[in-house]
Amino acid sequence: MFGKLAANARGKLPFAISASVVQLCFLIIFAVFGEYDEFSAVRGASEPPDSKDNIQEYYPMYRDVHIMVFAGSGLLLCYMRHYGYSSIGLTFLNCALALQWATITTGMFGFISIANERAELAPGEDKPAYKFPVGVSSMLGADFTAASVVVTFGILLGRVSPLQLLVVALVECVFYSANEALNIHVLQAQDPGGSVQIHVFGTYFGLFVALTLYKGWGTADPPKYTPNPSYVSNMFAMIGTLLLWTLWPSFNAVALSDDLRSRAVVNTYYSLSSCVLTSFALSKLLSHKHKFDMEHIQNSTLAGGVAAGSCCHMFLMPWAAILIGCCAAAVSVLGYLYITPLLEKKLHILDSSGVHNLHGLPGILSAIASIIAAGIAGHSSADGFINYQNSLYSVFPARAPEAVSGNCSLTAVEVSLGIECGDGRSAATQAGYQVALLVCTMALALTGGSISGLVCRWPALQPPTYSEWYDDDMYWNVPDGSESQSSLERKYDTGMDQDVTIHPDVILLKTATLNEQPSSSNGADLDHARAPSIMTHHEFGF
Do 514 and 405 belong together in one domain? Predict the structure, then answer.
């Protein structure tokens, strides 16, 4: 009896203890290094209120981003018949962890600026303390980091334990913040919608976690159990798609202001719209029996939002945004049909939710579009195909003239727009830095993902066995009669043959039949004996 209790305790305590320790560490770090930013801090009686209302400018769009990350992404991942609790619940868990940890990691990398500022001050002068700001801006950055963590979770969905997810999120936030700091302090490439820094990074981080974690599949290939959706679970996932599709312009535009924000909303809007029509057309044309495939409609219709992210604020013209959306849909649908099976067959990389086709490939497409757009941007018609006039340095701050003796040759209009001295880059140089962002992001994602995968192979993190994949019953109290498979049913499903694929209509196998398996060796008799135990979604009224 005591041995059984001890075994149960070992199963329950590691996550509870780990999560509690992590939260305690967050509390201590915030207490030591965190402080309100300039918009949230207490003001003295003689201090006038800031002229810029930070809340009114950012919070409405920030709210949209918050809904996308928590509700939209969670529902989109809820397509698996037996994994709905985990899809929504673990997304909630991962995002909540990432919000706090990302605020810390981003703040710590921000100490680079503080160190440089302290070094420039003369001895005896008051030096800024090593503190990271906490406010709406840091909350927005934390949500972007959480979005990248959710992208990674979509690849590993159903095949990792909560403890493993905890480790992946902690490591990913560090590498994400490092990549962000590299772009802010060195590259200064343009990616306001995070197509490269969020979507590409999260995708390839997750793919390399999967590749490293399951490299060689151990001693045997995993059972080819397909996490089939049901009619009901697909409907929930489609609600997530509509939420994300509706709010995506806010995601791409929230970090911008003035005409850049307006342009980002318009370009994203039309990219998403064209993406829907193209996805439906290609799904009908290329899918089995030439019918719409719900996987394409749930995911590929969103690819236009990803593909617009890096260049959404650039002077593209609406037709170019529509073209980007069409290309994103084509890349995504073709990825589901051809690239995902290839990754699984050749590299043994399982992508549970087709994340590579929704986030990875469209993200690379967006990077290519931003490289081209940056290379043809000019201050006037004489030095570029696209004339940005006085907006050029707002879109590409590093292209502003370099300071000479503390001054730079800016026009009065540019000064009034708040433009500051830059690095004096040419169009070709800026395009090169856009390439560098993609390369550096991929390199950091592959490094961080590989490290996470290696750590997650540690048995103490309680990795699920193949027979425990895609099953809520392993981690949740599931109501009787729900769609979640029990471990007994799972044994029946995967024990017959390593190559068995569960029929999409099978929902429940009666326990009584499992306990009384026929002893006949005749295959026909065996099938006849088991047939009555199979109940379809039609019989349940779904």
Answer: no
